[in-house]
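User: Please run a holo structure prediction.
Assistant: Happy to. Please share the sequence and the ligand.
User: Here you go; the ligand is S-adenosylmethionine.
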Amino acid sequence: MEGYDAATYGQRTAEVYDERVKGARPAQVELLEELAGEGPVLELGIGTGRLALPLVARGLEVHGIDSSQAMVAKLRVKPGGDRVTVNMGDFSHFDLAQRFSLVFAAFNTLFALPDQEAQLGCFATVSRHLLPGGRFLVEAFVPDICRFDRGQRVSAMEVGLDRVFLECSRHDPAAQTVTSQHVELGAGGVRLYPVYIRYAWPSELDLMARISGLQPEGRWDGWDRRPFTGTSVSTISVWRAPLP
Ligand SMILES: C[S@@+](CC[C@H](N)C(=O)[O-])C[C@H]1O[C@@H](n2cnc3c(N)ncnc32)[C@H](O)[C@@H]1O
């Protein structure tokens, strides 16, 4: 998708993101708070603050990184938005003066990094920013390549009286990438929301963590900490920095 870069998703989606994505659930906030301990916490791709702001409300010091000014502008005007330190930039490589008890990337955000090199760079960078015993949590879907028929998929995500949402995707199994347009057709015309992801299997995430000096701590099927099995469609993975 020519012209797509780290800021494109946020710039195109910021206006509708909070309408389309469910707010934080108690189980999400409780798990993050428990793993963070005393903090501080860093969220990769903090966006409009869906998860970060409930953590701020619970008294944690929260930092974020994001590449989209439009997403961060939405965060800033919400209650507590002025209490988050946001660094604008790419979370595949960053250099902050601080170390964290918890770094997390929720809602498949790690897969926004476009290739294995960038994702591995992210794990290595996170590892350098963790306090001893600090944790890295990643929420990600488990790839399901059966969704694609000869490398493509068109599906009706939402069909309403005055509006339809289609997903049009192309899959490259060698690069593990999916290039999509979410297409809204309605009274206001046609709107396009582009998304480019590079997915990774749970085993590849573990390998990137291990290469970066992190140790596996837990893997669950969702925020409620149900056991992860061969039929899980998403995963919460947690790795830890070694203790001294
Ligand atoms: C799916 S949204 C998730 C937002 C928030 N974490 C949540 O759970 O609601 C992904 C966020 O990551 C940001 N993002 C995507 N690629 C990025 C990159 N390479 N560096 C920094 N931020 C990025 C987008 O701008 C967007 O705000």
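Residues 8-142+200-240 form a domain with the Rossmann fold fold (CATH 3.40.50.150).
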